[in-house]
Amino acid sequence: xxxxxxxxxxxxxxxxxxxxxxxxxxxxxxxxxxxxxxxxxxxxxxxxxxxxxxxxxxxxxxxxxxxxxxxxxxxxxxxxxxxxxxxxxxxxxxxxxxxxxxxxxxxxxxxxxxxxxxxxxxxxxxxxxxxxxxxxxxxxxxxxxxxxxxxxxxxxxxxxxxxxxxxxxxxxxxxxxxxxxxxxxxxxxxxxxxxxxxxxxxxxxxxxxxxxxxxxxxxxxxxxxxxxxxxxxxxxxxxxxxxxxxxxxxxxxxxxxxxxxx
Length: 262
Ligand code: CIR
Prior knowledge:
The chain is an alpha/beta fold. It has six helices and 15 strands. The protein is globular, with a radius of gyration of 17 Å.
């Protein structure tokens, strides 16, 4: 196992949002995102990833799949391998076949989940573990199938629960370094991070937990000043990025890229 493989990356893959993002799934039935504003946020996001020195591939928008900008749910890149998942929302299932050719080109070949359902947003990878949250989108059959692929790649699988009413496991947590997780109190309280150092979210700023560590910086959503101060006081270099448009359709910073090293 390579120390830091869960946050030091040479590559990322993202997909441009289409105009159809206005029809993206959302639990709350709130306002539609604005496609032009979403695109501007996305451009700032991919630029920031590239500025860490990573090679960022940006795929064309897929108008037929409104949520396809959230590439993290259709595939998982782990241990030098790309795994095509089976997203659990009906309107998103076809995104997996759409992303496969791009990953085949980059990785040479891909593995495929053959049964069940798993959304990548339910998977938190650390250096040697995959914490997989059972959710409305991720079921036991999918977890079993994914475990068969991940264990030979050097990941122990820890099956955990996504809190009810929460879309994805990583809606409520993010990795800060090889040993440290940033989590809402409600998720950390379940005991699912035993063995890790946990920094709990500031009350009222829980939505900030969907952050990503990508090389040196931690990317945090703009608008969470107490969280910014907390993470800086813990010694992290934090860069803030707006993800307000993604949030309108239940997305955040982690969902908009696949992050890996070759
Ligand atoms: C969905 O409901 O699937 C999208 N509107 C949001 C997906 C966010 N993805 C993620 O947190 N990994």
